Each structure stands twice: as C-alpha cells, then as structure tokens.
TrEMBL record:
The lineage of its organism: Bacteria, Bacillati, Actinomycetota, Actinomycetes, Kitasatosporales. The record marks 168 as: Important for catalytic activity, responsible for pKa modulation of the active site Glu and correct orientation of both the proton donor and substrate. GO terms for molecular function: hydrolase activity, hydrolyzing O-glycosyl compounds. One of its GO terms (biological process) is carbohydrate metabolic process. This is Glycoside hydrolase.
Amino acid sequence: MPPYRQTAATYSVTVTETDLMRLPDMPLHDPFIVADDPTRTYYLYTSNDPSVSGTDGVGTMVYRSRDLRDWTRPVVVFLAAEQKDIWATDGGWAPEVHAWDGRYYLFTTLHNQDKPLPVGPPDQWGSPFQLPNHMRGTITAVSDSLLGPFTVVDGSRPTPPGHLMTLDGTLYVDPSGQPWMVYAHEWLQTVDGTMEAIRLAPDLCRTIGDPVFLFKASDASWISERIPGGVPNQLPPYVTDGPQLYRTPDGSLLMLWSTYEKNVAGQGTALSGNYVQTYAVSPSGDIAGPWRQHRPLVRDDSGHGMLFRTFDGRLMMILHRPFDDARGKLYEVELDGHELRLLHQCTDLDGGG
C-alpha cells in the first residue's frame, strides 16, 4: 500500500529511533504545523520531497512528532497527478491544512506553464521583468483525516480567480464566521506584489464576490533601506509571499508575510539571500485594514513563517532558512498587544544556524 494511503490510525508511539528525524535533517520549505490536541501530535506539512518520502511526484507530505524534536519520516498525503482532470501538476508549494466543518482542507499552490496569462508589467519596467505569466494559484482539497488522502474538489481551476497569477493561499475566518482565502498576487503580474483576500463559500471551494486589496509590498517602507543614497530603488521585484493570519488578544488582526529586501547588487533586483520574515497589523481587526507594516522579525534568508501554540500553551513560530535547501527553524514568540516579539530561537529543537 503506498504511503499516501495511510490513515491517522497508522501513527504509532512505538516508532524506533532509526525511524526518527530531526529538523536539521528534514527538507522543509514553507512549513505549516497543525497541533492536533486529541492525539497530542504535531503534523508538519511541506512540499513532497521524494528523497525522504519515498514517493515520486508533485504533492504534499507530512512529518509527525509528539515533542517538536523527534519526527517520523514523512508520508505523502496528496499527489497532484492523481487528481481527476487537474488543471496543473507542477508546484505543490506552501501546503496548509485546516480543520473546517468536521473535515480537513488542504490548500497548496500549483502552476501550469502551458496555460499562459496576459503579460503584466508594461514596457517601462524593462527586461528582465517582461516575463510571460502563466496560470498559478492555490487549489482546495479535502480529506476526513490529517493523513489524507486529500482530493481536489474542483480540478478545473484554482480557487482564486484564474486570470490572476497568485500563490500561497491561506484560510482566515472573520468574527462573523465568514471564511476567506488570503493570497499573494504575484509581482510578475502586478510589478508591485499585493496581498488580497476573497470570500469563500461554506465549502471553502468556491469564491464569493471580487477580491479585496489589502496592501502592496512596497508599503513596507524599510524594504529599500539598504540601498545607499543615489542608487535607484524603484525597480521591481516587490514581492509578497507567505501570508498567515492570527487574531491577537487585543482584537487586532496580525498577518505574517515574507518579502525580499533590496540591496546594492543590481540596484535591488537580486533576490538571493535577501528573504525576510515580517508582519503587518490591522488594528481595527478588519481584514480590509488599514494595515500597518512592521519591521522584519527575522532576516538571514528566512521566511514563510506561521504561528501555532504548543500543547503546553507556548506561542511558537516556524519558518524556513535558507530559501534554497531549506530547513525548519523554531522560535518562541510573545504578543504584547498586537506587537509580536521574538523571545529566543529553539536551537535545542532546530539545531541553530
């Protein structure tokens, strides 16, 4: 039986030491943790890596742990190529799993270079930013188990509007109970990447109405601080990436997100090494904002983080570092009103670095 056919009942507390992994040895891009209280188990989702899952194909795999230190080898819970009439089979980025209405919903981003979209940036931006656009967006799949298998509900299209080049869709439920998908609208299509939100139907698979603009990447005023005076800083990319929403105790709405700082190399056009984890706050608590940008929490080629609570009540953030050949890094954090503060990196769990 293939590993992605396993169910939650297959988790065993008698896993041998040779079956266990630790974060420094675990390929881990765009990490997302579900802390499942009934089983006291952490489920850590990421893009499938056949070198550790043993299963080929674009999809999603999950590691499991009781203590955030020792993790089982991953099993695959979703494979794009197995989905009926799926519109794309590349990507498999930024998987998230959310409990909703008695089932589990997987969001992950796919793309298809054979389905072109209109070119976005106008001529004045110049090469290399006159890049062809193609279909990219987050799909919604559902399962009765945290271990899948997850099945795409509508294989004909992404969940956000298909004419938009988007990625990294995440679930947000507002105080009235209305679900939303919040996603990044690609700078490849917009030049200045944006965060947007769109209402979801109760099945989380259909959208309602038009997207709502939240903010653009260049709203973060610090993004060009490392450019010396006299050096142009107006050129793209201005990237939005990895949103995750979190309600603070004072009622504000906090969004973790990632971007690239600009530096002197290439007048700020180089991406390598400049990935950062930052956040924004809507003090009103409304998804529409206005959003106030805060300074980066973690630099050093780190990002795409998410917040979760441990079983003993600590607030934690996991992100990946570096961007290429990424590994998971864990931080204990705290909220002071709507200010998010790092307490310390959990080097005993993630190996430091």
